[in-house]
Amino acid sequence: MVVGLELVPVRKITRMETQQTSNEELTLRSPASVMRLARMGSFHQCRLSFMRTVLRRLQRQAWTFERPVFEIDADGVGVAVYTARGPERAYSLICYAHDLPDDQRSDRVIAEAWDATFTLFDGVPDRADIERLSHHVPKQEAGRITEKELVLCRANRSVRLFGHVIERLAAGQQPDAEQIRSVGYLMRTTAVYGSGKFGAADRELICDRPEFAGPFQAELLAVYLVRAFTVDIVEHLARIRSPQTAVKIAPELRRAIGVGNSTGLGMAPYLISHPVLLNNWIATRETALARVLALPSASAAEAEVFRVMLARASINAADWHSVHPLQIEKLALLRADLEKLTAHTAEADLQNDRPWQRFLDWTVEHCSLEGQEQIVSLLLEPHGALVDDLVDTMGADEDAVFRIDGAMPVERLRAILADTYGWALDIAWQDRESIARVWYISEEKLEPRLGERFEEPIEAYEQPLAPGRDVAALHGALVQWAGEPVTAAFLLAHPEHRAAVRRAQIAAKLPYAEIRDNTISSELLPIDMLRCKLSFFGATHFDPRSDRWVRINMYRGAPFPDELSNAGDDDWSYPPLGKEA
Asked: Which of the listed residues 161, 264, 296, 573 has the most CB atoms within 10 Å of its CB?
């Protein structure tokens, strides 16, 4: 199915802002098209994704890495420390390795034991720190950490790959390349907590540090170091098993190992609860695309980079597998789209007459949402110098727009609802299908859950995660309002609509702040929200296990810390040509 994309001006940006040479203005894609869940659930990682931002900074600033502690016994139990040193500060990942019975290994957030637990420490820990944290980090939520700890996470071994790699390396052989490609990780994290959870440092304590100014930089630095640990521990256990014959993983296979992750519903409401941050992520990506589309021409070298990246994306799609019917269908569409796009590039002029705009126009006409959004990501690849500076705009000061403008005329508020929320006003909210779901918080783990409104007694616990419905109710009240013509007077009489008014005023200023779909519909696919957020992290190989949780891969293909200084210009996000992925 080919889905078109509306292209209308939603925000004008001068060429001076975009490092162009003309006074012509840029036009961004319409939020009415971009902010639909079907499209957001087809996003791919790109140059602006946070993992790539982390590694570009580490490389540019010549960070150094060391492993001052590695005390792991023959059973894989012990502690290791990995320290990353930057221009001003050092951070250390403290790793606690455990001997977990197979029957206790679970991806569920309710698990109470893991193969490895970690914390990102602010600075370099001494023995007292390592001892103190050994009593808390392995307990995760049940333990207590301090402001010296920035991130708390845990991981489980891949049942299929972990033991296989140790066995092969101990015998002096390389792991099976097909298994490496199929699984893609030795361990997968089941939670990566930051921003003050369980006693860790609040975001406000570190957000002024340049290395952590962007979203989730501390968490993704921790995951990057977790990846190094996963490879080191299998090589270490292989040496212990057979010191005379053991070998290390070959570099090309090593690079193909990332960190797996299992992510569930806990992540989905984040996009609804943080409209300013969501806007800034999407607006940054759309601004980068607009910069590229506005280029009047492309060099031969830039056109060749695009062709190569398209070929590498095709390899990536071929190696991307899933067991979920929805993702299997999407993968089939993506692979078919990439074949069509490859054939088109053989004939298309990629250098003259606004080549990238023409190419995207062709893609919109001939490809599915998967193919369209893959091309959006690929179009940025030849133009790092043009778009990479935009990563500095992806953070958010959410307090700056929190205050409601009580002086806003009610007529202006009505106009905002009609313009921004027309999609919500068209929904028949009295229908059971339109309000079938309820977001609530589980008592057991205090995590978001999604239940069936008319099948479970959970409506009394509903969380405010249905902005479409709430704005429609606000609109109904405004239609009946005959009092003073300012918003403050309306809210004095109807304080139940304060949250909806705030969201509407935010969306009027920030066009990509609102998901333009019903988030409590019977047809809702939460995995669309998960994929959107995870694509900005830089995740790949999305593999839904239901409509509510997904497995992904992080840092697959990335240089390891010992390779980073010679890794080239951020050239790792797709499998290389002519080699195993």
From this structure: 573
